[in-house]
Amino acid sequence: MITPNENIQMLKEENDRLKRAVEELTFLNDLSRAMSSTMEVQAIMARIITKSIQTIGVDQGTIMLLEEESEKPMQTIIRGVGEENRGGTYRLGAHMTTWMIQNVKPLVVNDLLNDERFTLLDLGESGIRSLLCVPMVLRGKLIGVINLFNKSGGNAFSEDDQKLMSIIATQVASFLANARVFEQVQQSRDVLKKQTVKLQKEVQARYGYDGIIGKSTQIKAIKEEIQSVAKSPASVLIIGETGTGKELIAKTIHYNSNRSEKPFVDVNSAAIPENLVESEFFGIEEGTATGVKKRIGLFEQANGGTIFIDEIGDMSPSSQAKILRVLQERVIRRVGGNRNIDVDIRVLAATNRNLKDEIAKSSFREDLYYRLGVFEIHLPPLRERREDIAPLIEHFIRHYADQMGKVLTGFSRSATEILYHYDWPGNIRELANVVERTVILSSDPEIGPEYLPPDLKSGHDPAMEAETSFEESVNNFKRRLLKNALKESENNKAEAARNLKISRSYLFRLLNQLFESE
Ligand SMILES: Nc1ncnc2c1ncn2[C@@H]1O[C@H](COP(=O)(O)OP(=O)(O)OP(=O)(O)O)[C@@H](O)[C@H]1O
Ligand SMILES: [Mg+2]
Question: Is the pLDDT reported for residue 465 higher than 50?
Answer without folding.
Answer: no
